[in-house]
């Protein structure tokens, strides 16, 4: 409960494996960054049980210290390495979701006003799918692997790659999908054999309270703990050493988490966001593109890291595209925009509502479609803004809301602008022409790409998901989540009879030993990069043939046979 700590193919991949110009907003951002700087430099004695404005209690320093000591001791005993234990925890997690899915829906409705149609597929079903995938492939993923046998030492020494859990994993969730974005990585960490401390978002308070209650009720509290913490408490938590940190959220906070992790050389996975663009080419199915982009922007009130941030539309089809956008927004609102506050997701809090309002006030674009925006109930209607210029306030940061800027641009311009910005988490290209798709793939870089739809690449079973550059580092989903929490440990055991073969490595060093240890490699290509047809292997064969021929001509062959040294 609040204030206490709660007790595709699945084949594993091989192991070689700027701000708005508004001064008030700048001041707000500066205060946020300063607050986090203080957090990360705070001392333990400053940390105690804290209450937020809504009277929600956070875990105390003593609670956290106890939790960390407990899970660390459990991991040291090897408890989490047992595959039966891992499977049992994943099975229990299934029933945790199944038994509490109605309560999850109520918590999501309280925090975000989420509709059942968004909750069940993306939170409940998403968690269930992650659990089943891990259970289905766990035996396969945990098997030792043998590297290639072309090296005699690999073969004779039995070179093996062993899958070891990294240790204690800290997983920090996000408020926009409070269950999936916390529990999904937790399932991966459990499958990998890690002990886990999870920290739900303190912004989605109802969901946090529920997670604080149900995780200790269903999962083994010796190795899996759930803590509640705000920014101040996280400063204390991040002073401690973990073996892996998995964070989902903003790039600004990620930089401080990474800085804290660097003090312990702790590896981190960062699932961030970015200004993900859509590109609508003249050859696209314009009506379908508008429908799918509108639906994506509508979902969760645009509060999705993968959402379309802005759209580049070829000027020749812009009018048609915007008309279809407005048409579908009308349809999605059911012709009754007054129902928006009742049935559709709200903005998470007043701070984010005010941020979106400021961005709209500062834009030089033309608002062609809008509706009611009510700070009291945090409802925010889908909003279309056209005639956007590069440098506009709406392009100054990730929007994370239901505002959709439209930019007139051909494919060349779109690619140029995309490459001038931080790498986004996703790019969405709409075109019927393969050459357009090929250009987008070849000339840009992003976490992922979906063509003629939005966000679908995240659902590709067994495929990696993650960002690049400012949109994140590391990958998860399927086997990649397992690998993210796994240390690939190589071991080898050469037989003792190989000692004579390996004796040249010992001092004193001599030219004879050097000849045995060092055989100059021959390049199978010349200085111009052309393939060399006669390699040393063929020369050896040729030499053998020549030697045999010489022996036959000189009578050596018959002599060896007659003496019994060689059989016919």
Please give a quick description of this structure.
The protein has 21 helices and 17 strands.
CATH architecture name of the largest domain: 3-Layer(aba) Sandwich
Task: Output the CATH topology of the largest domain.
Answer: Aldehyde Dehydrogenase, Chain A, domain 1
Q: Termini distance? A: 87 Å
Average pLDDT rating: 87
Total discrete domains: 3
Give the CATH level 1 class of the largest domain: Alpha Beta
Identify low-pLDDT runs: 1-56
Strand proportion = 5-15%
Q: CATH homologous superfamily of the largest domain - what is it?
A: Aldehyde Dehydrogenase, Chain A, domain 1
Work out the helicity level.
40-55%
- Specify the number of helices: 21
What is the structural class? alpha/beta
What general form does the structure show?
A: globular
Spatially, the strands of the biggest sheet line up as: 9-12-13-8-7-14-15
Strand tally? 17
Q: How much is the radius of gyration in Å?
A: 30 Å
Main sheet properties: 7 strands, mixed
């Amino acid at each position: 409960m609040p204030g206490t700590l709660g007790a595709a193919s699945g084949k594993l991949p091989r192991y070689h494996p700027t701000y708005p110009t508004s001064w008030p907003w700048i001041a707000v951002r500066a205060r946020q960054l300063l607050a986090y700087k203080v957090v990360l430099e705070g001392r333990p004695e400053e940390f105690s049980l804290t209450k937020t404005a809504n009277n929600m209690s956070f875990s105390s320093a003593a609670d956290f210290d106890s939790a960390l000591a407990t899970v660390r001791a459990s991991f040291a005993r090897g408890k989490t390495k047992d595959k039966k234990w891992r499977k049992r925890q994943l099975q229990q997690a299934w029933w945790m979701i199944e038994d509490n899915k109605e309560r999850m829906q109520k918590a999501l409705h309280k925090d975000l006003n989420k509709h059942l149609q968004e909750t069940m597929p993306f939170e409940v079903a998403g968690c269930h799918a992650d659990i089943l995938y891990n259970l289905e492939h766990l035996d396969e993923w945990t098997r030792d692997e043998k590297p290639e046998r072309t090296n005699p030492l690999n073969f004779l020494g039995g070179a093996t790659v062993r899958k070891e859990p990294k240790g204690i994993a800290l997983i920090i969730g996000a408020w926009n999908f409070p269950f999936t974005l916390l529990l999904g990585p937790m399932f991966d960490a459990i499958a990998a054999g890690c002990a886990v401390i999870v920290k739900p978002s303190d912004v989605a308070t109802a969901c946090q309270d529920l997670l604080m209650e149900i995780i200790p009720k269903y999962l083994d509290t010796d190795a899996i703990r759930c803590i509640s913490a705000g920014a101040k408490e996280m400063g204390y938590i991040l002073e401690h050493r973990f073996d892996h940190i998995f964070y989902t959220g903003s790039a600004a906070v990620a930089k401080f988490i990474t800085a804290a992790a660097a003090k312990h050389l702790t590896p981190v996975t960062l699932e961030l966001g970015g200004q993900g663009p859509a590109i609508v080419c003249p050859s696209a199915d314009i009506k379908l593109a508008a429908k799918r982009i509108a639906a994506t922007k509508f979902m969760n009130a645009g509060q999705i890291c993968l959402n379309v941030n802005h759209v580049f539309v070829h000027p020749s089809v812009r009018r048609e595209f915007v008309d279809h956008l407005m048409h579908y927004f009308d349809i999605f609102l059911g012709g009754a925009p007054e129902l928006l506050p009742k049935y559709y997701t709200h903005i998470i809090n007043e701070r984010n509502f005010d941020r979106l309002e400021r961005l709209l006030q500062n834009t030089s674009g033309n608002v062609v479609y809008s509706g009611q925006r009510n700070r009291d109930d945090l409802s925010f209607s889908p909003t279309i803004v056209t005639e956007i210029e590069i440098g506009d306030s709406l392009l100054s940061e990730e929007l994370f809301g239901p505002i959709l800027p439209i930019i007139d641009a051909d494919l060349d311009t779109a690619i140029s602008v995309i490459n001038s910005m931080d790498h986004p988490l996703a790019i969405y290209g709409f075109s019927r022409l393969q050459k357009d798709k090929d250009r987008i793939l070849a000339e840009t870089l992003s976490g992922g790409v979906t063509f003629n739809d939005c966000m679908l690449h995240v659902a590709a079973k067994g495929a990696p998901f993650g960002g690049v550059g400012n949109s994140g580092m590391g990958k998860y989903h399927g086997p990649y989540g397992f690998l993210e929490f796994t240390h690939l440990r190589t071991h080898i055991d050469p037989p003792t009879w190989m000692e004579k073969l390996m004796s040249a490595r010992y001092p004193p060093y001599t030219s004879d030993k050097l000849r045995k240890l060092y055989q100059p490699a021959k390049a199978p290509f010349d200085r111009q990069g052309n393939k060399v047809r006669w390699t040393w292997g063929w020369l050896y064969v040729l030499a053998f043939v020549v030697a045999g021929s010489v022996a036959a001509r000189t009578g050596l062959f018959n002599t060896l046979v007659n003496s019994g040294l060689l059989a016919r």
